[in-house]
């Protein structure tokens, strides 16, 4: 069952692939939503029609110091820090006055469960749709900030790779390739369609749920560099996974670090999410064979942010 990543791809071959997957100009020179443009009202209605039982599943990790961000891999990222601003503080001197308590949170916008905004990555000096990398400055993302995503509500589809492979979680560095995604889609019997939000389960989040954060962080099963070809062919609106890096590290592409990030965010304008918790949803889908649902995964609209905190909710 253990697989190896595909052959190493040269930088020139990767450049040719990037050109084939490019959505630059597809929705106009000023577009900042990318593949979210595939989500039409008809697609949302299709998502609503997939609700049968009314079960709801939060797919979010807690925003706490126990989350997996400790600066490893991306220096400076921390877990959310929450403290109190006020504790039972009276609003007036009267003993009958209301007393209030308030919190404050300091957090990266890419802590715990989150979306990467299209401004999160540039490649060779450019962002999605040809915007210059200089559009990101000390004030944040003047283009492609997470607020450009707007509402992220569509039909969700779970591809449960781990269950398809007959395991609770895939082994470290298992490559989730285009062929693997196609095989899972066929086996589950639910075609992935234009405008869908795709959730890819590797089972890696089970480490986190068991309190084993180091286990969650160690070399993980993840997307291989050709998985974006599948996303492009299916015209999906967004993709999320149940691990931290999204993709295999190191990747099988010469001189290109994070090639899946480049293809998704920069070339296709495809919103991508990490640290989604899919265990309970996957169990419910496997129990009745229904792998579609209505998904509301709208990020907090922090202007100029390169990431978006989110509590995704799947409704079956």
Highlighted features:
alpha/beta, globular, 9 helices, 316 residues, 20% strand
Structure write-up:
The structure is a single chain. This protein is of the alpha/beta class and 316 residues long. The protein has nine helices and 15 strands. It has a nine-stranded mixed β-sheet with strand order 1-15-13-7-9-11-12-4-14, with helices on both faces. It has a two-stranded antiparallel ribbon with strand order 2-3. Helix 1 runs parallel beside helix 8 and helix 4 crosses helix 7 (227-234). The longest helix is centred in the N-terminal third of the chain and has 11 residues, at 11-21. The radius of gyration is 20 Å and the shape is globular. The model has no long low-confidence stretch (mean pLDDT 95).
What is the element layout, followed by pairings?
Elements: H1 11-21, H2 41-49, E1 56-58, E2 81-90, E3 99-106, E4 114-116, E5 136-137, E6 140-141, E7 153-160, H3 161-164, E8 175-176, H4 178-188, E9 197-201, H5 205-209, H6 213-217, E10 222-223, H7 227-234, E11 238-241, H8 259-268, E12 271-274, H9 279-288, E13 292-296, E14 307-309, E15 313-315
Parallel strand pairs: 7-9, 8-10, 9-11, 11-12
Antiparallel strand pairs: 1-15, 2-3, 4-12, 4-14, 5-6, 7-13, 13-15
